[in-house]
Automatic annotation (TrEMBL):
This is Tight adherence protein C. It comes from Palleronia aestuarii. It is found in: Cell membrane. Residues 184-312 form the Type II secretion system protein GspF domain. GO terms for cellular component: plasma membrane. Pfam families: T2SSF. It is a multi-pass membrane protein. It comes from the Bacteria. Its main location: membrane. Keywords: Cell membrane, Membrane, Transmembrane, Transmembrane helix. Coiled coil: none annotated. The chain crosses the membrane at residues 14-36, 111-137, 143-165, 295-317.
Length: 322
């Protein structure tokens, strides 16, 4: 009887409260767009404004860079070292020059600096390691081990410049590989609008600078080479050799064939742009698929001990208190 009396007593107030809550929720749902600001639209406007500022800044930088030579003159110290120790013969190595160009270093200056650093770093690191091991800390180890440490330091100094150049090449290629599909889309639009290939490359070099300065620089150099070389095919081949990116090599092959046989360039660029986007997506999926195996060791080392401590800790405390 008490339960039925309570239900009869509080039934109407409960129904009233539920109705009031439903009405309140309906009003909030209706007025929510007017009460809460649209953060997504504001953020998109901020992103658009920031992209425009970056584009203006890169255009100004590229225009200012047109007045500066991309070739660096060798420093007198490096040049004297190369000439005095007979390293000038290595400066004629075509493979070394090609790798330096792929890393963004052009002219005789970077070649002299590379050869001089490859000569000075082993001597400097060897002397530093010998002073540190034999004098500063007086390592209590056999003489052979001390000598081996010095030799390892000298080897690190010898291979250090080559490793730096390789890392620079990888970073430049990665930046160009990411921006190349967008550059192909812009090139396709410019070509189909009636622009010549020189004007299209010049326009793409200006627009793509906000996304990849490296690619904009290479396209600007290609445009400059096309203006003074007798054969434009050589300019395209130089672009392929300077970048070393497979997708750019495919596009260069297409441009060379179109230049030689007079075939349609628009359809080929459209196919290349689609293939480049698919390749970029496949690389991203490959990295995403490789993430779980890479996380296995950190999870075992850092997460599982903490998890075991949280789970087994209270039980251990209770057992100790028995």
């Amino acid at each position: 009887m008490n339960v039925e009396l309570l239900l009869q007593t509080y039934r109407e107030p409960a129904i009233g409260l539920l109705a009031a809550a439903a009405v309140t929720c309906g009003i909030l749902v209706t007025l929510w767009p007017y009460l809460v600001s649209d953060t997504l639209a504001r953020r998109m406007r901020l992103v658009t404004d920031e992209a425009e500022r970056i584009r203006v800044r890169e255009r100004a930088r590229l225009k200012a860079g047109d007045k500066v030579s991309l070739r660096r003159e060798p420093r007198k110290l490096f040049k004297d070292i190369v000439e005095r120790f007979g390293l000038a013969q290595e400066a004629t190595d075509g493979e070394m020059r090609a790798r330096l160009r792929m890393a963004g270093f052009r002219g005789e200056g970077p070649i002299m600096a590379f050869l001089a650093m490859r000569f000075l770093l082993p001597l400097g690191l060897f002397a530093f390691a010998a002073f540190y091991v034999f004098v500063l800390i007086d390592l209590a180890q056999p003489f052979a081990l001390k000598w081996g440490i010095c030799v390892v330091a000298a080897c690190a100094g010898y291979y250090g410049p080559a490793i730096y150049v390789k890392n620079r090449i990888d970073k430049r290629q990665q930046a160009m590989r990411r921006a190349w599909p967008d550059a192909l889309d812009l090139l396709l639009i410019c070509v189909e609008s009636g622009m010549s290939i020189e004007g299209a490359l010049r326009k793409v070099a200006i627009e793509i600078g906000a996304q990849s300065v490296e690619l904009a620089e290479e396209l600007s150099l290609t445009t400059a080479e096309m203006s003074y070389l007798a054969d434009r095919r050589k300019a395209f081949e130089n672009l392929s050799d300077r970048t070393g990116v497979d997708s750019i090599r495919q596009a260069v092959t297409t441009l060379v064939q179109a230049e030689k046989h007079g075939t349609s360039l628009g359809q080929s660029l459209r196919v290349l742009a689609q293939e480049s986007r698919d390749l970029r997506m496949s690389l991203a999926e490959k990295k995403a698929a490789a993430l779980p195996p890479k996380l296995t060791v950190p999870m075992i080392v850092f997460f599982l001990p903490v998890l075991f401590g949280v789970i087994l800790g209270p039980a251990g405390i209770q057992i100790m208190n028995l």
